[in-house]
Amino acid sequence: MLVLGLETSCDETGVALYDSERGLLADALFSQIDLHRVYGGVVPELASRDHVKRMLPLIRQVLDEACCTPGDIDALAYTAGPGLVGALLVGASCAQALAFAWGVPAVGVHHMEGHLLAPMLEEQPPTFPFVALLVSGGHTQLVRVDGIGRYQLLGESLDDAAGEAFDKTAKLMGLNYPGGPEIARLAEQGSAGRFVFPRPMTDRPGLDFSFSGLKTFALNTWLQCREVGDDLEQARCDIALAFQQAVVETLTIKCRRALKQTGLNSLVIAGGVSANKSLREQLERMLGELNGEVFYARPRFCTDNGAMIAYAGCQRLLAGQHEDLAIKVQARWPMESLPAI
Ligand code: KG4
Ligand code: ZN
């Protein structure tokens, strides 16, 4: 089955062609980062308008790259939520219109299920069951995964998502959006041990997270450095390192706890923050100690992309699921409400 996948939940237009027999045939992405950078974050209306502009040229591009024509496509998959409603509607309308015109089915995909399944596109995919750490700009969740659509939420962030905390901490130090890659880059020049940030909620039982306090801690440290006339370039790097270490260690502690609680030794990390090198290294070390394994997607499939939507959609379409003609999207959508396949 050849599936055309469209992702438009936020500030990236992603398009990909996935074939259930031959794997991923082509994928293309247009990132709106430059468009939103001057505002320090995503402006929803600008995002929707830009998706409209980029979608058809990207579809033509992946069809050309894969030497396919519209007649070869068996179905469409699009992100139906969670995300920005206007942005989601662009992908949903486009997919439904093409599906109607081409006489093929279309399926709406849950964005976080897309992220969760992205490591399945790699050479050595994980096998069920496993624990998944979903860490993106909007979500931080620990999930027990027994199959597609068989999700049990073990814990989640009570306030900021991990990626959001990276973005806000970067912004308060005058760094560019998105902050995750900026913080990771500066942390490499940071001096270890100069600042030590707390590991929120690790001193009590449970698998929930809270990252908003870390951002305040970073702000106070930053203001202090400015007040005493510190070398601000170095202070930025030192704060970036202390912040990143705090997030990574907190996530690692909770992952270890989730693995212990479930009795599993296989961990999947997915979402934008799973591109973070330090997080990957620490989790690999931890899973090494437990004789387990950690799985993640290549960096460009950790952040938003069309390939994960085409893949997840394909699995659901193969199981016989598809939408009717109504164009429906959801800004909020709990992943545990998805049907099992
Ligand atoms: O999954 P994603 O592309 O979009 C959402 O679904 O939210 O995640 C974007 C988030 C942003 O907050 C960004 O700062 C973060 O992922 N991110 C990173 C890294 N690359 C992207 N955070 C830490 N380290 C990175 N290398
Ligand atoms: Zn995402």
Could you explain how this protein is built, in words?
- The structure is a single chain.
- With 341 residues, the protein is of the alpha/beta class.
- 43% of the residues lie in helices and 19% in strands.
- The strands form two sheets. Strands 3-2-1-4-5 form a five-stranded mixed beta sheet, sandwiched between helices. A five-stranded mixed beta sheet has the order 8-7-6-9-10, sandwiched between helices.
- A hairpin with a 4-residue loop joins strand 1 and strand 2 (12-19).
- It is globular.
- The model has no long low-confidence stretch (mean pLDDT 98).
- Bound molecules: 5'-O-[(R)-(carboxyoxy)(hydroxy)phosphoryl]adenosine and zinc ion (ZN).
- The site of 5'-O-[(R)-(carboxyoxy)(hydroxy)phosphoryl]adenosine has 21 residues, from helix 5 and helix 6.
Write the layout of secondary structure elements.
Elements: E1 2-7, E2 12-19, E3 23-31, H1 33-37, H2 44-65, E4 75-81, H3 85-102, E5 106-110, H4 111-117, E6 130-135, E7 140-147, E8 150-156, H5 162-172, H6 179-187, H7 212-227, H8 232-262, E9 266-270, H9 277-289, E10 293-295, H10 306-318
Parallel strand pairs: 1-4, 4-5, 6-9, 9-10
Antiparallel strand pairs: 1-2, 2-3, 6-7, 7-8
The structure holds 5'-O-[(R)-(carboxyoxy)(hydroxy)phosphoryl]adenosine (KG4) and zinc ion.
Distance between the termini: 17 Å
Bound molecules: 5'-O-[(R)-(carboxyoxy)(hydroxy)phosphoryl]adenosine, zinc ion
Rg from alpha-carbon coordinates: 20 Å
How much helix is in the residues? 40-55%
User: What share of residues are in beta strands?
Assistant: 15-25%
Number of strands: 10
User: How would you classify the helix and strand content by structural class?
Assistant: alpha/beta
Main sheet makeup: 5 strands, mixed
Order of helices and strands: EEEHHEHEHEEEHHHHEHEH
Strand order of the largest sheet: 3-2-1-4-5
Number of helices: 10
Low-confidence stretches: none
- Overall mean pLDDT: 98
**What general form does the structure show?**
globular
